[in-house]
Amino acid sequence: MQPPAPRTDLFWMRIIAVVSTAVVLAVAFLILGPRPAGMRGRLDVSALPHVNAALNALSAVLLVVAYGLIRRRDVDRHRDVMLAAFGSSTLFLVSYVVYHWFKVGPRPYGGAWPGLYFAVLASHIVLAAAIVPLALVTLYRGWTMQVPRHRWIARITLPVWLYVSVTGVWIYAMLY
Length: 176
Hints:
about 180 residues, mainly alpha, Four Helix Bundle (Hemerythrin (Met), subunit A), globular
């Protein structure tokens, strides 16, 4: 069971909820919503899928390294590596949005396993939306040294974040 929250957390949890909702809705709108005329092809974004895959791979590696560091009780290095993982995931998100803003839509899958591909893609998308508030809450609790609460949510966040990062690379490999 999770330890009780300090009273000051209510403010920050509300901020995280608002930011998470705004990010997920903004990404959904920017990818699925209408674009102004002339956006397609205005910027050459053909290299961004490769950049996105590299950023996802980097995030996965950093998460595994950070886990190893905390298992060795190296809190300072764990914090630094987790901030790097959050940074690489944030850069991925920005790059992903830019790519989709200047492209018509996602690249169609033409492989031999469409059922598997779409199942992984669907789970990836749902969990990618969920990782926004999970990562923010986990980072907040770690930053404020709420160790029991941080540890509790990190046990949920780590596997979800790793899954999203690894399946992001897998989806790229299936498409390119």
